[in-house]
Amino acid sequence: MVIVRAVTAVVVVTAAIVAESPTLKVQLLRPSARLPERASEGAAGLDLFADGGAPCVLVHGEIAVIPTGIAIALPPGHEGQVRPRSGLAAKHGITVLNAPGTIDEDYRGEVKVILINHGARYTISPGDRIAQLVIAKVEKARVLSVSALEATSRGEGGLGSTGR
Q: Is the pTM of this model over 0.70?
Protein backbone atom coordinates (compact mmCIF):
# COMPACT_ATOMS: atom_id res chain seq x y z
CA MET A 1 0.00 0.00 0.00
CA VAL A 2 2.72 2.48 0.89
CA ILE A 3 4.47 1.95 -2.46
CA VAL A 4 1.23 2.58 -4.35
CA ARG A 5 0.65 5.83 -2.44
CA ALA A 6 4.23 6.99 -3.12
CA VAL A 7 3.85 6.28 -6.83
CA THR A 8 0.50 8.08 -6.88
CA ALA A 9 2.06 11.10 -5.17
CA VAL A 10 4.88 11.20 -7.73
CA VAL A 11 2.38 11.06 -10.59
CA VAL A 12 0.31 13.88 -9.06
CA VAL A 13 3.39 16.06 -8.48
CA THR A 14 4.68 15.40 -12.01
CA ALA A 15 1.27 16.23 -13.50
CA ALA A 16 1.17 19.48 -11.49
CA ILE A 17 4.62 20.50 -12.76
CA VAL A 18 3.66 19.78 -16.37
CA ALA A 19 0.36 21.64 -15.96
CA GLU A 20 2.24 24.71 -14.63
CA SER A 21 4.87 24.78 -17.38
CA PRO A 22 4.50 27.81 -19.66
CA THR A 23 3.90 27.21 -23.37
CA LEU A 24 6.12 28.66 -26.09
CA LYS A 25 4.23 28.91 -29.38
CA VAL A 26 6.49 28.69 -32.44
CA GLN A 27 5.61 29.51 -36.05
CA LEU A 28 7.89 28.07 -38.74
CA LEU A 29 8.29 30.85 -41.32
CA ARG A 30 9.96 28.71 -43.99
CA PRO A 31 9.89 24.97 -44.80
CA SER A 32 13.59 24.73 -43.91
CA ALA A 33 13.12 26.21 -40.41
CA ARG A 34 13.43 23.99 -37.34
CA LEU A 35 11.67 24.10 -34.00
CA PRO A 36 13.93 25.04 -31.08
CA GLU A 37 15.15 21.90 -29.28
CA ARG A 38 16.63 20.98 -25.92
CA ALA A 39 19.95 19.19 -26.35
CA SER A 40 19.32 17.23 -23.14
CA GLU A 41 16.45 16.70 -20.73
CA GLY A 42 18.02 19.00 -18.13
CA ALA A 43 19.04 21.78 -20.54
CA ALA A 44 17.87 25.24 -19.48
CA GLY A 45 17.95 26.58 -23.03
CA LEU A 46 16.42 25.58 -26.33
CA ASP A 47 18.87 25.45 -29.24
CA LEU A 48 18.17 27.91 -32.05
CA PHE A 49 19.13 26.94 -35.59
CA ALA A 50 20.40 29.04 -38.49
CA ASP A 51 17.93 29.20 -41.34
CA GLY A 52 18.49 30.90 -44.63
CA GLY A 53 19.68 30.36 -48.15
CA ALA A 54 23.46 30.33 -48.26
CA PRO A 55 26.09 29.73 -45.58
CA CYS A 56 27.41 32.85 -43.84
CA VAL A 57 31.19 33.23 -43.56
CA LEU A 58 32.32 35.27 -40.56
CA VAL A 59 35.90 36.54 -40.44
CA HIS A 60 37.58 37.76 -37.25
CA GLY A 61 35.76 40.80 -35.84
CA GLU A 62 32.78 40.48 -38.19
CA ILE A 63 29.19 40.79 -37.02
CA ALA A 64 26.27 39.04 -38.72
CA VAL A 65 22.53 38.89 -38.08
CA ILE A 66 21.51 35.26 -38.60
CA PRO A 67 17.84 34.40 -39.26
CA THR A 68 16.29 31.41 -37.52
CA GLY A 69 13.16 31.06 -39.66
CA ILE A 70 10.88 31.14 -36.61
CA ALA A 71 8.55 33.58 -34.90
CA ILE A 72 7.46 32.99 -31.32
CA ALA A 73 4.69 33.90 -28.90
CA LEU A 74 6.03 33.93 -25.36
CA PRO A 75 3.78 33.26 -22.38
CA PRO A 76 2.52 36.43 -20.66
CA GLY A 77 4.98 37.73 -18.07
CA HIS A 78 7.98 36.06 -19.76
CA GLU A 79 10.90 37.08 -21.95
CA GLY A 80 13.12 35.10 -24.27
CA GLN A 81 16.85 35.40 -23.53
CA VAL A 82 19.09 34.66 -26.53
CA ARG A 83 22.39 33.38 -25.15
CA PRO A 84 25.63 32.10 -26.66
CA ARG A 85 26.35 28.41 -27.07
CA SER A 86 29.37 27.55 -24.95
CA GLY A 87 30.89 25.21 -27.55
CA LEU A 88 30.82 27.84 -30.31
CA ALA A 89 32.38 30.38 -27.96
CA ALA A 90 35.10 28.13 -26.52
CA LYS A 91 36.09 26.34 -29.73
CA HIS A 92 35.59 29.06 -32.36
CA GLY A 93 35.21 32.45 -30.63
CA ILE A 94 31.63 32.85 -31.91
CA THR A 95 29.27 34.53 -29.44
CA VAL A 96 26.04 36.49 -29.23
CA LEU A 97 26.98 40.17 -29.41
CA ASN A 98 24.20 41.55 -27.19
CA ALA A 99 24.18 38.60 -24.79
CA PRO A 100 21.71 38.00 -23.53
CA GLY A 101 19.53 39.40 -26.26
CA THR A 102 16.00 40.02 -25.07
CA ILE A 103 12.87 39.00 -26.95
CA ASP A 104 9.83 40.79 -25.52
CA GLU A 105 6.59 38.87 -25.02
CA ASP A 106 4.76 41.05 -27.57
CA TYR A 107 7.32 40.67 -30.41
CA ARG A 108 6.02 38.58 -33.31
CA GLY A 109 8.68 39.01 -35.99
CA GLU A 110 11.36 36.55 -37.03
CA VAL A 111 13.83 35.66 -34.30
CA LYS A 112 17.32 36.64 -35.45
CA VAL A 113 20.62 36.19 -33.64
CA ILE A 114 23.40 38.80 -33.67
CA LEU A 115 26.70 36.89 -33.77
CA ILE A 116 30.27 38.19 -33.61
CA ASN A 117 33.42 36.28 -34.43
CA HIS A 118 36.33 36.75 -32.00
CA GLY A 119 38.23 33.83 -33.55
CA ALA A 120 39.37 32.63 -36.96
CA ARG A 121 37.23 32.50 -40.11
CA TYR A 122 34.10 30.44 -39.44
CA THR A 123 31.16 29.37 -41.58
CA ILE A 124 27.59 29.28 -40.26
CA SER A 125 25.52 26.90 -42.39
CA PRO A 126 21.74 26.51 -42.49
CA GLY A 127 20.74 24.04 -39.77
CA ASP A 128 23.69 24.88 -37.48
CA ARG A 129 22.92 25.44 -33.81
CA ILE A 130 23.84 29.11 -33.29
CA ALA A 131 22.46 30.15 -29.89
CA GLN A 132 20.15 29.06 -27.14
CA LEU A 133 16.84 30.51 -26.02
CA VAL A 134 16.03 30.62 -22.31
CA ILE A 135 12.46 31.50 -21.29
CA ALA A 136 12.41 33.54 -18.07
CA LYS A 137 9.78 35.22 -15.93
CA VAL A 138 9.90 39.02 -15.88
CA GLU A 139 8.94 41.30 -13.02
CA LYS A 140 7.42 44.53 -14.32
CA ALA A 141 8.47 47.00 -11.66
CA ARG A 142 6.63 50.25 -11.21
CA VAL A 143 8.82 53.32 -11.86
CA LEU A 144 8.84 56.00 -9.16
CA SER A 145 10.69 59.31 -9.36
CA VAL A 146 12.36 60.28 -6.06
CA SER A 147 14.50 63.24 -5.00
CA ALA A 148 17.16 61.01 -3.35
CA LEU A 149 18.01 57.32 -2.96
CA GLU A 150 18.67 55.43 0.26
CA ALA A 151 22.38 55.32 1.16
CA THR A 152 24.27 52.00 0.98
CA SER A 153 27.78 50.98 2.08
CA ARG A 154 28.78 50.74 -1.59
CA GLY A 155 27.41 54.12 -2.54
CA GLU A 156 28.31 55.24 -6.07
CA GLY A 157 31.26 52.85 -6.41
CA GLY A 158 31.07 50.87 -9.63
CA LEU A 159 33.17 49.35 -12.42
CA GLY A 160 35.47 47.26 -10.26
CA SER A 161 35.02 49.20 -7.01
CA THR A 162 34.33 46.03 -4.99
CA GLY A 163 37.69 44.48 -5.83
CA ARG A 164 39.11 41.94 -8.19
A: yes
